[in-house]
Amino acid sequence: MMTAFFHDLAPVRYDPEADDLAFRHYDPDEMVMGKRMEDHLRFAAAYWHSFAWPGGDPFGGQTFDRPWFGDTMELARLKADVAFEMFDIIGVPFFCWHDADIRPEGSSFAESQRNLEEIVDYLIGKMENSRTRLLWGTANLFSHRRFMAGAATNPDPDVFAWSAATVKSCMDATHRMGGENYVLWGGREGYETLLNTDLKRERQQAGRFLQMAVEYKHRIGFKGAILVEPKPQEPTKHQYDFDVATVYGFLKEFGLEEEVQMNIEQGHAILAGHSFEHELALAASLGIFGSIDMNRNDYQSGWDTDQFPNNVPEVALAYYEILKAGGFTTGGTNFDAKLRRQSLDPLDLIAAHVGAMDVCARGLKAAAAMLEDGRLEAMRAERYAGWDRPEGQALLNSDLESIAARVTGGGVNPLPRSGRQEILENIVNRFV
């Protein structure tokens, strides 16, 4: 039975010449580098921003008035009905959730657990009549006041225990729903002040917590990837999962670098002082690239605005790194993005996803064209060609004394060579 929210909007079609709402660049069946565009991009809609977020910001409260807002199971089912209508309208193959997005909070852990199990049954029923599947699930361990000092890193062992039980229930739900990944995002795993913080203790707690999650994955036979999502700050002053490099050091310390991959968000990369493509390239070089949250920040704001992507050159450089890494396996492109708080209408929600999917499609095609053109990679290989020669390889197997003797004997006289940055940027601009 259809709800009234989207007013019987028809599924969005691919029509490059359309004057109304349509995909002008995203054709799911278009072949890009030997693979369907849909299979490259693996789009997912975020349950929280699209259906649970009330339209607030740091200075103002709710602006959205959705018919499913409330704390009953009846309204949770209505929210699911509307969500799957949107998934069908825009044709996304995947969606993602936090537990708090899909079920009402109970008066006890046991009641919240029963609510989760009931709504998961309902969502599985919805999936049976839809092509949309679960990309990943995760636990909301940051919104409720009990998590004000963190979850895994909390100074109260009872909060650690509550958080561990919540992750177990969410992993079970993700497994039941056939999810392809499970994400851990430490929304408040950090500190406000060092005056009351034991960094070593909290780091050890976080490491053991993640080890437990990995152990449980294997115990229940979950075949998907465990993903960690880095974020440098906001709401805490400093978060322990600051960026890809920081998380990799953490994984190495606790023996998890072969077990855990990264879910990298564009907005978080910018907050950490990096570009999105930097974080993607680094994760790929370390062998921990998994999935992405695709959004953008407003560069005139100093916080995480979670806007839908609309910058094709930025997106193209991101997909260039993803294609170079071999593309997604279990991961995908999740729109962890929200409407502006003045965009009140149901059509705004559809148009935001359609526009974002078109931007990603344009970016993907530009990235594929750059790779197939080959000039960027050829110039990169030329720049490092000396290291592929016997003399370059020998350096890495030598020692300081031997190298110094060679330089002193006149065998080395390096001259500067151009990095050709402007030429490389001009090549990129031909495609975007």
Automatic annotation (TrEMBL):
PANTHER family in the record: PTHR48408, XYLOSE ISOMERASE
Co-factor requirement: Mg(2+)
Family to which this protein belongs: Belongs to the xylose isomerase family.
Protein origin, superkingdom: Bacteria
Protein name in the entry: Xylose isomerase
Intracellular or extracellular location(s): Cytoplasm
Subunit structure: Homotetramer.
Comment on bound cofactor: Binds 2 magnesium ions per subunit.
EC number in record: 5.3.1.5
Chemical reaction(s) catalysed: alpha-D-xylose = alpha-D-xylulofuranose
Name of the gene: xylA
SUPFAM superfamilies: Xylose isomerase-like
Family matches, as InterPro entries: Xyl_isomerase-like_sf, Xylose_isom_bac, Xylose_isomerase
UniProt-annotated binding residues for Mg(2+) 2: 265, 268, 304, 306
HAMAP family per the UniProt record, alphabetical: Xylose_isom_A
Record keywords: Carbohydrate metabolism, Cytoplasm, Isomerase, Magnesium, Metal-binding, Xylose metabolism
GO molecular function: xylose isomerase activity
EC main group: isomerase
Positions of the catalytic residues: 98, 101
Lineage: Bacteria, Pseudomonadati, Pseudomonadota, Alphaproteobacteria, Hyphomicrobiales
